[in-house]
Design brief:
heterodimer; A: 252 residues; alpha/beta; six-stranded mixed β-sheet; four-stranded antiparallel β-sheet; 9 helices; 24% strand; globular; B: 381 residues; Transcription Regulator spoIIAA; 2 domains; 12 helices; elongated; binds adenosine-5'-triphosphate; binds magnesium ion
């Protein structure tokens, strides 16, 4: 660990627009090493968009993003790709490779980036599938399993290389309460025991209380962050009624 | 409460109030299936009034109304708001009121998201030209990226995904044999048949064999095979990569640190380039067989046919044809993958990319074929 535990990911003055439709502007925040950081907000407010920018997939209109002090947007490509190799991402849609079965999906990063022998790779990949409860589906194709199972398989793939940062876009959407709670336990465990930093987009209130160290809340109308902090404190004390309503699950 | 089934349809009565306001009294059942006449009538009445007069909707005798009824009220409210007149709704049953106010509240507070405005003809022409230019630039960039990925693969052959290469070879090559064979056979047959009559007028039917041989080996074999490749594999590449793009699989690859071009395109392009010469030879053989059938039916012998064909061709003809074929394979596969990776979001975008892959592929094939003709002529091949 190189000192500065204050921020592992530093997002500064980020503005994003699709055409002339601004999604959000001037968003700044930082994610600390080892914490579980949750991004909240109504549907369509730009959470997935924010995530895609944080991993350098899209060019922002303005602003900078640094992971471990390395500039992601305009930085040195070689060092940037070294950083990116240490993150795992689960997309909202799962994004499993449709032409490979689950085991091959999870093995792929291991095959490409390690010198491990085939059995070692398979052992590790099966373990990751076991973590998300899918070990008995290893040779199923993504199209042969349910949406929630695809999500879990995608989480397993994101964890394949034991990344130090995991980005999860709505991991528990579409899961039943029990599976969702098991996932929360897994996230907590990985964060506590392996020191993995999590950036999670989720709407599930129970999940938020179970895993989040800190949250930020985006708002569609105000096109930016309207609340930052511990979810319990926000629920009880935030001055903004819309924020309290979100945490108490009330309609406007 | 369920919608009453046998009740009379809704009706509208129009009256004038004390202060000159328009009173629209709705009665009965307002349902999507029966409301259209009332709706038109109400709008018509509204249109006849001067702007400033208020409108009062009397809904006290509405027995049942579904979302279409509420839509009618909202529509009238909207018309009035735009023209700046007052609008009031009286006597709407409480159980409909909640829904109405929820919808109305939403309308007022949220401006509609602006879509791209309608553009004028010069604007459209301008944007098309800009798009065409950007498209060209993107293709050049893609070719650059592909070249660098190909070079990388050349130096790291172990890292290439050979399983993908073999699979693609099977799809591009082996699976295309029946269609290539059939079409080439028919083309050979047709050329020979068409040539037999005019050549017969000069007593030169003998030369049908030369004509078939030269045109198939130098020109039509590579061309037909390439067009079949564009329709089969170019389209398939675009659809495969397009679907991967839509499903965010391409994004997933990039964030894993696997460049999509290296990972997805190299295997497909190399397979297509490798298979095209073989497919083309296959096509030539079947074309010659087709020509042969006609030739034999003209009363010549099999031996003479073979003799004529061999005499008409030089090795350079064959090599030139195969070189063209490989080049076409490169073009078709590159363009197919390029269009696939260009796909935007949505299922219809995949269809669009596929179409564009085939169109661009065939255009490039024909243009390149023209260039080859000139070059081969100048080189004397
Ligand atoms: N590719 C795109 N092109 C144009 N606009 C887009 C694109 N992707 C997203 N948007 C716009 O950006 C906004 C935010 O989208 P985003 O997917 O980030 O929402 P979200 O917060 O993740 O929503 P959800 O909770 O439903 O997943 C939306 O208003 C959407 O219209
Ligand atoms: Mg999203």
């Amino acid at each position: 660990m190189n000192g500065d535990e204050a921020s592992l990911i530093e997002v500064a003055n980020l503005s994003v627009a699709y055409g002339d439709h601004t999604v959000f502007r001037n968003v700044s925040f930082s994610v600390k090493r080892g914490e579980v950081f949750v991004i909240l907000g109504g549907s369509g407010c730009g959470k997935s968009t924010l995530l895609k920018h944080m991993i350098g997939l899209r060019q922002p209109a303005e602003g900078t993003i640094a992971i471990e002090g390395e500039e992601i947007v305009h930085g040195n490509p070689a060092r940037r790709s070294r950083i990116l190799r240490r993150i795992g991402v689960m997309y909202q849609s799962g994004a499993l490779f449709g032409s490979m079965n689950l085991l091959e999906n999870v093995s792929l990063p291991l095959e490409e980036f390690t010198q491990l022998h085939a059995e070692g790779i398979e052992r590790i990949a099966r373990m990751k599938l076991e973590w998300v409860g899918l070990d008995s589906f290893a040779d199923y194709m993504p199209s042969e399993i349910s949406g929630g199972m695809q999500k879990r398989a995608a989480i397993a793939r994101a964890m394949a290389l034991d990344p130090s940062i995991l980005f999860l876009d709505e991991p528990s959407a579409g899961l039943d309460p029990i599976t969702s709670a098991e996932l929360d336990v897994l996230i907590r465990n990985l964060s506590r025991n392996l020191g993995i930093t999590f950036v999670v987009v989720t709407h599930e209130l129970p999940s938020i209380y179970a895993i989040a160290d800190r949250v930020i809340m985006l708002d569609k109308e105000r096109k930016g962050i309207i609340a930052t902090g511990d979810p319990r404190i926000l629920r009880d004390r935030h001055e903004e009624p819309s924020v309290r309503r979100f945490f108490n699950r009330e309609a406007a | 409460m369920l919608a009453p089934t046998a009740t009379p349809q809704g009706s509208l009565e129009v009256a004038c109030g004390d202060q000159g306001e328009l009173i629209l009294s709705f009665r009965g059942v307002l349902k999507a299936t029966t409301i259209h006449e009332i709706w038109l009538q109400a709008r018509h009445e509204l249109g006849r009034r001067s702007l400033s007069q208020g409108v009062v909707v009397n809904a006290a005798e509405v027995v049942y109304c579904d979302s279409a009824g509420l839509g009618l009220f909202l529509d009238l409210a909207e018309v009035q708001r735009k023209s700046g007149g007052a609008f009031r709704i009286d006597g709407l049953a409480p159980r409909f009121q909640g829904l109405f106010h929820q919808l109305e509240g939403r309308r007022g507070s949220q401006p509609l998201v602006q879509r791209a405005p309608y553009r004028s003809l010069p604007g459209l022409v301008g944007t098309s030209v800009v798009h065409l230019w950007q498209d060209g630039v993107a293709l050049v960039a893609f070719i650059g990226e592909l070249s660098s990925a190909m070079t990388w693969a050349l130096f790291h052959p172990r890292k290439l995904r050979w399983r993908d290469v073999w699979l693609t070879c099977e799809h591009v090559g082996a699976n295309a044999l029946p269609i290539v064979g059939l079409i080439s056979f028919l083309i050979g047959l047709i050329i020979a048949f068409q040539a037999a009559i005019p050549l017969g007028q000069f007593g030169a039917q003998n030369f049908v064999a030369d004509l078939v041989a030269v045109s198939l080996v130098r020109e039509l074999g590579p061309l037909m095979t390439a067009i079949i490749l564009a329709g089969r594999s170019g389209a398939a590449f675009a659809a495969e990569l397009g679907t991967m793009k839509v499903n965010e699989e391409v994004d997933a690859l990039s964030t894993m640190g696997l460049p999509p071009v290296r990972f997805l395109v190299v295997a497909r392009v190399s397979a297509a380039v490798a298979m095209m010469p073989f497919l083309t030879m296959f096509s030539m053989v079947f074309g010659l067989i087709g020509g042969g059938v006609v030739y034999l039916s003209l009363g010549f012998s099999y031996v003479l046919y073979c003799h004529q064909v061999v005499a008409a061709l030089e090795l350079n003809d064959l090599l030139g044809g195969l070189f063209k074929a490989a080049t076409f394979g490169l073009l078709v596969a590159t363009v197919g993958c390029f269009r696939g990776l260009q796909t935007e979001l949505g299922a219809s975008a995949v269809g669009r990319s596929t179409t564009r892959a085939v169109v661009t592929g065939i255009t490039l094939i024909v243009v390149t074929d023209g260039l080859f003709s000139v070059i081969f002529f100048l080189l004397g091949i």
